[in-house]
Design brief:
The protein is an alpha+beta fold. The chain has four domains: about 160 residues, Alpha-Beta Plaits, CATH 3.30.70; about 90 residues, Glycinamide Ribonucleotide Synthetase, Chain A, domain 4, CATH 3.90.600.20; about 110 residues, OB fold (Dihydrolipoamide Acetyltransferase, E2P) (Beta Barrel), CATH 2.40.50.1010; about 40 residues. It has eight helices and 26 strands. The strands form five sheets. Strands 1, 2, 3, 4, 5, 6, 7, 8, 11 and 12 form a ten-stranded mixed sheet that branches. A five-stranded mixed β-barrel has the order 14-16-17-19-18. A three-stranded antiparallel sheet has the order 21-22-23, with no helix packed on it. A hairpin with a 4-residue loop joins strand 9 and strand 10.
Length: about 425
Amino acid sequence: MIIGIDDTDSNEGMCTTYLGALLLEELQAYGAVETFPLLVRLNPTIPYKTRGNAAVALKLKTVCPEKVIAHVISRVEELARIECEKTNPGVVFILEKDYKILKPVLGNFLEEAVRNVIEIQEAKSLIKEFEISSKGFKNGRGLIGALAACGAMLNPEEWDHTFEHLAYRQKERWGTPREIEKESFFEADRKTYPGTWDTVDLTNRLVVCVPHSADPVLFGIRGETPTIVTEAASMIKSEPVERFAVYRTNQGTDMHLLSAANAAEIRDMHSYMLEGMVSAFPKTIHGGHVIFSIRDNEGNEIDCAAFEPTKNFRALVRKLMPGDKVVLSGSASSGTLNIEKIEIKKLAPLHKEENPKCPNCEKHMKSTGQGQQFRCKKCGTHVPSKVRCEVKRDLETGLYEVPPCARRHLAKPLVREKRSDIGIHPAR
């Protein structure tokens, strides 16, 4: 059977992946866990999410599914932060006899949950139609993520994946400052990058894989394989780890991005790739945010932003100018595209006027006065005006990304890109 769980945490604490790690151990009393647990990040722009908008799924071989169902529901009731207004847990159980019929249905549902906006009633109607065993708490919004996670488990070959080693704190330490040796994270990064990424932000000298909220997670190491993330985790020096789990995830895959044919298609609460031409010089507004606009092939324009948390990425954006051809990746909010990555496909030429060179001496000529001709002091040759010449831009074509400290869970880091047609500039 497959078990999907979502929305058990709150902004103040708890973590659905921690509940998944507990159940990984406890459910072995009822059967055998068949594969890696899944951590599935859903649409990152949903306003009613708690923190990272993650759901989990477990796959178990058991002869007593009813006991498993009862145990899981009791643990959700015990550990979920149901007292929180925004927390609305959902649990879904898919029995093996229903795998075949639900595989395409929940596969589609997964894609919709990651890229679009799904209403609670949509999930409840699907559960009713296929008579899926489930339990929703309060308004049951967590049923959306629980179904999506089951869809991921049923269709492992249909989506790109990475892994995360999640280490959890002892319960008595929850809510207290985390005790870590920062240099051990930089050392782990030095020895395992590019097999792992987003452990640290070298440019901004930050450890980025340690959360700051009161949840049970001590740290999470992301990477390409279970072996490499576990190797990196073994180098970390910190307070005692209560338990850990290695999750297969859709993090770092760009699974959330839709391809927009034009700017008119872009809707808030969705994420896109959009090609266009820079139509206005970037400007820095209050708060340090950098705003500019692009125009698509149909003449539609949209504002784009590199917000202050993107740090040094803003310096790159400030170098753009009208006429530059770009492909932007990011999420839409209030009619503005919040940039996660930028591909600079073509740079507009930059020109300046300068004193002409003497055609005989090849020396720059001097003006004979305001509005007058230019004359070579050596040979006396005259030229009527300045000349226009192209200047090399302080910018290269290629792929650029925000720094690790500003990266969303789902955004694919450039270290994972396999393209050879364009320069790649990973942020470190």
